[in-house]
Design brief:
By secondary structure, this protein is of the alpha/beta class. It has 21 helices and 13 strands.
Amino acid sequence: MTTHPHPPIPLTNATLVDLPDAIARPQYDRSTLTPGIVHIGLGNFHRAHQSWYLHRLMQQGDALDWAILGAGVRAYDATMREKLLAQDGLTTLIELSPEATKAEVVGSMIDYLPIEDDNGALIAAMSRKEIRIVALTVTEGGYYQDPVTAAFNATDPDICHDIAHPDRPRTAFGAIVAALARRRTAGDGPFTVQSCDNLQGNGTITRQTILGLARAMDADLAEWIEQQVSFPNSMVDCIVPATGPAEITRAEQCGIADLAPVTHEPFRQWVIEDDFCAGRPDWDKVGATFTDAVHDYETMKIRILNAGHQVIANAGELLSRTTIADCMSDADIAGLFHKVQAEEIAPYVKAVPEITPSAYISLIASRFSNPAIRDTTRRVAFDGSSRHTGFILPILRDALAAGGPVSGLALVEALWARMCAGTRDDGSVIEPNDPKWDELNAVAIAAKTQPELWLAQSDLYGAFTANSSFTLAFENWLALLWQDGTRATLRNYLDDLL
């Protein structure tokens, strides 16, 4: 898409007809839409993915009674709410490929609920009978799991607050339980709770959190939820960078003044377990896959794409590579990606009907290499304490159990430890990039001379420290990273020199 010669048009319902002809827009009458979904966590990914699938159905004249009510439970969500309400809930999606840029306005969200300390408006909305799905994108680390056992963490302060104050919950899950309690009392039936986060078994984990919280509040309610509410597992996939000034400028160049546009790659995938207790839109008509084998799809995606991001992101940070595409254009980082994937990840991934693990690795390498997607290395490296435990360590566990090689995975963990020390190889500072940064940074600095201290973080590594093949490889790699630097260490790994 070429830069539009006229001043950008502010995005609202009233101005849709004035947008440049090349921009796709809702062909349905948004004033006739009625809500069927509350979605908690209106970040970029949801707006480029689940919201888009629903929008595509609406473009066909379907699912007009499934519109989205946006919601959030944190104070910072108020900023996004203000931006989206100012443009009537519309979002500009900008698809970026090396060949072309395309823009589309999505209109499947019709309101954004107020952000309140007690989540009163959210609970009231979810209590409405016409709401049949409550969906979430609240990040991988937002499900209140114990980092070692993966069990429900009933000791978290926010969870403790919700148990003590069930009518004034702080968390999304407390609000969901409160709404389900109201619906049970009113005889209005349950809704489906649908996680859309990058978690293996995301529906199962969501069920664990909801039931764990409900059991601590009301055993009868918990039993009703267990019997009546469904929690479908799903796999979601689309690379969606964060929005900053450059993305807003790109929207303006397309002719739209959007306060919160979203850029994304051309690829999308949504694989869903068909388990909806109160009905669902026909997302399969617009490309989603309903299957009983979600686990195989999500294992492939999480272990190759999500873990693949963590394989390269910390090396990229240390070598001052700004974007994931920059990382993949670096022969040593790309070599790390391909070698770890082929030797230590693919053996623990099953094929799915559409694609083999090796072909999927090639697909992901191509997607990561798309220079039009400015997906920053910093964004991908964010929250390693959740992403390494969620994406890398389960693979390591399987590799150790199978007696397979783990040198590459040990190097990945050593690169994370080195990155958390807070400086790049060129001496520049890495700004805090993890909710536990202060703790990680202190341990990472101490691990420069005592590498075993990094693995002694039991909330991260637990029983892994008992395996000498992993711990010895990790300690050797971390020592080499400090002694010779990241590039020399990567080349040692690629040449099988350690």
